[in-house]
Design brief:
With 466 residues, the chain is mostly beta strands. Helix content is 6%, strand content 39%.
Amino acid sequence: MVRIGAMASPKSLLKSLLDRRELLAGLGAAAMTPIWPTLGSAQDSAKGLAQQGSAQSSAQRRTALALQAKASRFSPQTHQPPVDVWSLAAPEVRLNRGDTLDIAFANNLPVPTLPAFRGLDGIPAAEPLLARPAVAPGGRETLQLPLRHAGTAFCDLGLLGDGQAGPSRGLPLIVRESEPVAVDRDEVFLIEEWRLRADRTLVAPGTDPKDAESFHTINGIFSTDPTAIPVRANERLRFRFINAGPRSAVAVKLEDLEVRVMAIDGQPAEPFPARNGAVVLAPGSRVDAFIDVTGPAGKRCNMLLHDGKQARLVGQWVISSDPPVRPAALPPAPPLPSNGLPAQLDLKNAQRIDLVLGGPQADWVSPANFTASSTPAFAAKAGRTVVLALANRADRATVFHLHGHHFRLLDRLDDGWKPFWLDTLAVEPGQTARIAFLAEHAGRYLLESVAADWSAPRLVRFYSVG
């Protein structure tokens, strides 16, 4: 059962694009979705569509990926010297649903580290800290990732990143649908958050940033004067937004364009319009949106990024004078192909667990102090619905991330859920959010909790399904 309930509209999001408190209060699903959908119980373009279809219809295969954690440098700010950063050296990763990714990981950093994958369900053998210990400096590991779901995921080193000598960059992981999806372009926007000292050293999360400058990059670039990218009338764009920042929420607004949210946290949603073209992403969240380009030649469309303090122009598109891609815009897109998550959840007979987030909690520990032999937060029976009541006792928003499964955000009366799946949710201070998932993947999986503050520690526990 899905009941579509009323909710507060974040209209101030786009009036001033929110102050920080409003931004954090609107995290997760609520700020993204001020309008709920109603549920019932040209040559280059043609080439792009053909490539989508042929890639998605290819046979399932195994793909090898050499992944290397290493010190590197990048130049996020124009006309400024490069800065030192830790990164995952690898090519862009785009695979198909049903493929298996064979990873050979090498740690060339001076500290133990461990890549974690956000958005990949039901792979207990790949769970960090539980099935995979930290890789020592100079060490290596191999692992296999069966990609059972299509969607937008990413990999990073943030699990063990608190207080280290430097922050690290993320790596998008795109798994294409098994059925053709009619888009002309498929673009990734990796949003990352940084704290930069006056001596041009970056501050790792979990550390007091003091007077360090705060800024965000998109695909590794901070620009105050982005170059306009030409698009053609009646093109359909698929934008995959990834908030790979470790602590802060961001709002992204596309001006003068209709933005339809198609997937959240890698799982298809019932398509719905983003109010005024804006979405909000908690740290670790992902949103896939379709944008249909309409208007006369020369029309410019801006993309703004709000970090809780101010809005900044980060992208611009201009409709070229080339002939339209097609005579008219495509009709509204149907939902993306299902990944097979359950249509119904048995809330009546669910196992119910209370979890307290924030504040001093003896059961939550830093990843560095975690032991796989500790007692699980809860043990779920395979095939049973689990309802978690997440109570945030901190004085600021706290971000919760569930490994191994995606969940539904329940309505306040527990009589239904929002029409999308999540793996990450920010809970407002003093509030309790209820989520539900079907425990369908046997194994042990992490739970993560971190306050939306740069100096706050990342904390973990785990749960088991059997």
